[in-house]
Amino acid sequence: MQTVIIRTAKRRIQGAKLDEQTILPPRRTPFIDVVDSAIAVGRKVGVIAPPRMTKGALLDHARAATGLEDFGDTWFEEPMDVLLESVRKEARLNHAGTLAAEKQFHHVLRDRLYTQMWFERHPEILARPIPHPVVIVGPMRSGTTRLHRLLSADRRFAHLRSFETISPVPRPEFEEVLAGRTDDFRPKLAARIMKVARLANPRTLSIHPTGPFEPEEELGLLVASMWGMKHEAQWTVPSYARWCEGEDATPAYRHMANLLRLIGWSQQESSLRPWILKTPQHMLDLPALLRVFPDARLIFTHRDPRQVVGSAASLAWNQTIIYSDHAEPGKVGREWLRKTELMVSRMIEARRAIPKERMIDVHYDEMERDWPATMGRIYRFLGLDMESALPGMHDYIERSRALKRTPHRYSLGEFGLVEDEVLERLGDYVRLFDIPIGESAPEEVSGLRRTG
Prior knowledge:
Blueprint: H1 2-13, H2 30-45, H3 55-66, H4 77-91, H5 95-121, E1 134-137, H6 144-152, H7 162-166, H8 174-178, H9 186-200, H10 204-207, H11 219-223, H12 230-234, H13 238-245, H14 250-267, E2 276-278, H15 286-292, E3 297-302, H16 305-323, H17 329-351, E4 359-363, H18 364-382, H19 390-403, H20 419-425, H21 427-433
Parallel strand pairs: 1-2, 1-3, 3-4
Helix pairs in contact: 1-20, 2-5, 3-5, 4-13, 6-19, 14-15, 16-17
């Protein structure tokens, strides 16, 4: 049936130029133009220092800021070298983008130094177990966020909060927080960052609604090793992307696991609670993930690839236009079509080595039609009763209405793509997992039911 629908769609569109191709993607807000001009003037008059975008300068700056020397496993320096080179030669960052990139590198390097400091102060952190985590694996925009947050509502699981993804490592004075003598500054910092993000691009919360204490994915923990698609979704760095696609990510996942141990310790929670994890990066890195988490239980999410590609391109576009004046929608669209195809093919290949009893498949449309029934099937897979978790899940659903008030609108045509090519290149994926395909790919809308 799916084959017939795909062929029908191809015949309907093939050879024709879709009207939606003339649609232009959204522009960035004037706020960024003002900030960019102000930074340019600040650099010219010497109020803002020139960029320090070399590895040596960034490492030295982090050491000087913290008074620490140990960055831990030096594996991260190789992806850092590749990323910096790609940023310099390909990203074409504006003044605001360059300053933001420098701040991001500094933040990551400072956190690596603080990480090792905590391990030295409290060696028991590294002894914390990470038993049978539940890992949600799916393409970008396939409903992973919604599923992650529903499961995170169950207190039997551990999860990251958004402020811990932004700042996973406590500052040196955190023991004062544990003693109740002061507050953790990280949630306040996260709130400020989110406020600036909304000013830079108000569409941010439509695409990925969040708040400082909302459950969040662990992509920021992979960024701690200069690894992952977060860089590709905010900068045009194709050389870095291709390099990462050819490398073994195991060291990045080992560091991620140690950061989970540190975060669990900082939360003062039992180390016996399984973590709920999710990020689309796992689609590319399943072998590495399973080497580090050999007893992981996997929930695979699937969605109409036209919606996956269109929404992913929109997400990347809305980030990239903040940091560069030269983003091209056609290039963004083709890159995320290629990336989605690669993610799917690697996921299919990796699944061949995973025992069937360790994984379950969930369709986006199933969650749309009847999320309680779908969650019930997931809980049976996990061997848990769902009844006690339902109140928390309903609370999340009510909260999601407040988080996401504006529809996330996008189309393939904004990014120079047509439906027939997406369906052709991802047709095997559709057939293998029996993914429902409609007559056309509707835009994503807001509200309770569209939170992934």
